[in-house]
Amino acid sequence: MNLTALAASWSPRLLSVLRIMTGLLFLAHGSQKLLGFPPRAGGAPELLSLIGFAGVLELVGGALIVLGLFTRPVAFLLSGQMAVAYFMAHAPKSPFPALNGGDAAILFCFVFLYLAAAGAGPWSLDAGRRGRF
Q: The whole model's pTM is what?
């Protein structure tokens, strides 16, 4: 089997792996904010605060991304959340992401934007709903 054929056969599966790992990492941010696990400095935020709302999006959105359910609209929403988070919380500190702590927000933003365009991949509930498991 040549490299092109191997890449073509594994590309959709690796899209699913990227989606699942991204969702798990994102979900961890929400569980930290809302559930206190892993513990974070400052305790749990008020649920009706901006950080509390971000935690809800991260926990619920991350779970939906892991499952591959409603992936395109959820990923688009989360991409926007990460863009807002970057410009509100990180960019004012420094123009350099490595210095302002915003490199994860930028990476999440663009991975979610890619998932909004590419979809969930074959290992997802979206694929199952379309009968393509």
A: 0.92
Task: Classify residue 113 by burial, with Cβ atoms within 10 Å: 0-12, 13-18, 19+.
Answer: middle
Q: Residues 40, 41, 43, 48: is their CA dihedral positive or negative?
A: negative
Each residue's pLDDT tens digit, 25-40: 999 999 999 998 888 8
Q: Where are the beta strands (DSSP E) in the chain?
A: none
**Structure confidence at residue 94 (pLDDT):** 96
Cis ω for the linkage preceding 38 (within 30 of 0): yes
Measured between its terminal Cα atoms, the distance across the chain in Å is 24
Cis peptide upstream of residue 95 (ω within 30 degrees of 0): no
